[in-house]
């Protein structure tokens, strides 16, 4: 091996179902944190600056963010140490410290403070270097707001400059389930009304 492994951190936001595939190394449930107001949720997803700022004002959200950051650092460094221990290498392996300058993330700001991220997982192939991949899954009810905001904020933490950080919002492209539930309820109501009308006709007959 010519040098230390390339650490790749992949952060997923997703809804409660179906489970992530591949299975993440670390899993976090954002449903225990307060939901943004409905007025915000109706017009924006978790990439919105307004929603992220609202959630960052919630102590439970920020405490979870800090705890997850530390667990990610610890887990990645353990993965790197295991990789190094299992490979013969004559060259010194540099340590990855949190106080090193953060690298540029694979995200960019669009209008209205919305962060544009990846939707599908990119290839983890690297050129001339072996990779150590850590997958982190963050879920909320639908994968549109809390988990998306959490992953966006987590990606912006001061990770070591050697790390490559990727964001995947699995369920952002999916339509909200509310409209589907409304259609189902309307269909069931219509069927019940029709059934009642048929029973009344039978009774009168």
Written overview of the protein:
The protein is an alpha/beta fold. The chain folds into 2 domains: 169 residues, no CATH class; 30 residues. It has 5 helices and 6 strands. Strands 2-5-1-6 form a 4-stranded parallel beta sheet. It has a two-stranded antiparallel ribbon with strand order 3-4. β3 and β4 form a beta hairpin.
Features:
RapZ C-terminal domain-containing protein; single chain; four-stranded parallel sheet; 205 residues; two-stranded antiparallel sheet; elongated; 2 domains; alpha/beta
Q: What is shown here, in short?
A:
The chain is built from five helices and six strands, in the order E-E-H-H-H-E-E-E-H-E-H.
| Rg from Cα | 23 Å
State the order of secondary-structure elements, H for helix, E for strand: EEHHHEEEHEH
- Total separate domains: 2
Main β-sheet, spatial strand arrangement: 2-5-1-6
β content, as a range? 15-25%
pLDDT averaged residue by residue = 79
Q: What shape does the CA trace take?
A: elongated
Say how many strands there are. Answer: 6
| Helix percentage range | 25-40%
Main beta sheet: strand number and arrangement?
Answer: 4 strands, parallel
| Count of helix runs | 5
Low-confidence stretches: 93-116
From the N-terminal CA to the C-terminal CA, the straight-line distance is 87 Å
Query: Structural class per helix/strand content?
Result: alpha/beta
Q: What's the helix and strand layout?
A:
Elements: E1 6-14, E2 26-29, H1 38-41, H2 49-56, H3 59-85, E3 108-109, E4 115-116, E5 131-139, H4 146-155, E6 164-169, H5 177-204
Parallel strand pairs: 1-5, 1-6, 2-5
Antiparallel strand pairs: 3-4
């Amino acid at each position: 091996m010519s040098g230390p492994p390339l650490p790749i951190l992949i952060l997923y936001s997703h809804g409660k179902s179906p489970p992530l595939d591949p299975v993440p190394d670390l899993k976090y449930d954002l449903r225990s944190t307060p939901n943004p107001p409905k007025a915000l949720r109706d017009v924006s997803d978790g990439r919105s600056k307004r929603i992220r700022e609202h959630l960052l004002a919630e102590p439970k959200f920020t405490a979870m963010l800090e705890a997850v950051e530390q667990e990610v650092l610890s887990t990645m460094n353990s993965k790197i140490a295991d990789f190094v221990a299992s490979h013969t290498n004559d060259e010194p392996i540099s340590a990855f410290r949190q106080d090193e300058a953060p690298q540029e993330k694979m995200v960019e700001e669009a209008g209205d403070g919305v962060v544009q991220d990846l939707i599908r997982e990119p290839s983890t192939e690297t050129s001339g270097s072996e990779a150590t991949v850590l997958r982190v899954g963050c879920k909320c009810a639908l994968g549109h707001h809390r988990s998306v905001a959490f992953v966006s904020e987590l990606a912006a933490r001061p990770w070591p400059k050697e790390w490559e950080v990727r964001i995947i919002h699995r369920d952002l492209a999916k339509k909200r389930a509310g409209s589907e539930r409304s259609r189902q309820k309307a269909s069931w109501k219509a069927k019940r009304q029709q059934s009642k009308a048929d029973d009344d006709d039978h009774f009168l007959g």
